[in-house]
Fold:
Amino acid sequence: DAGVTQSPTHLIKTRGQHVTLRCSPISGHKSVSWYQQVLGQGPQFIFQYYEKEERGRGNFPDRFSARQFPNYSSELNVNALLLGDSALYLCASSGLLADSSYEQYFGPGTRLTVT
Amino acid sequence: EDQVTQSPEALRLQEGESSSLNCSYTVSGLRGLFWYRQDPGKGPEFLFTLYSAGEEKEKERLKATLTKKESFLHITAPKPEDSATYLCAVLTTDSWGKLQFGAGTQVVVTP
Structure:
């Protein structure tokens, strides 16, 4: 079975530009969460979506937004990129209420570099 | 404020030299504690979930335990392929999906 997939793998953008990152969850999972991980730190929670609705938001500016589609895939959008947005962006899927599990399974991540 | 602290920051082991990693947490209510393994440049790989104090889980050379204030990840007779960063994360009772991570312990196992 396919795990969580993310695209693109790597991305280089210039300050002020916009970026869209994509994620497909494990088949049957309806919850997707997004995390930002900078070098040497643990992942930081950005958003959680469940059944296409936002269920949680971390301490990130409004430049960050996300959505979930009817097939449960998700997009993370970041506007007006700053140098400090350079990080590994991780998507995680969870079965949540479907399998009484809170376990989250991560994708390989998208490495974003802002120059 | 919820807090997750991992120690040590880094650990260098000889092959076969057992050791333990610590994850201490301060949260209002614990829904679950999770351990992940992360290789450089890759996404975290799920290892264990612990839900209540006294619970233990094992997988190959790894064993995770949980108390009311901390969790330990024991690595028994490690091999070089166990080299990775080990992350712990907590999920609190006021959230379904917001994992709060520690900074991780970087483990290097030398032959």
Q: What stands out?
A: The mean pLDDT of chain A is 94.
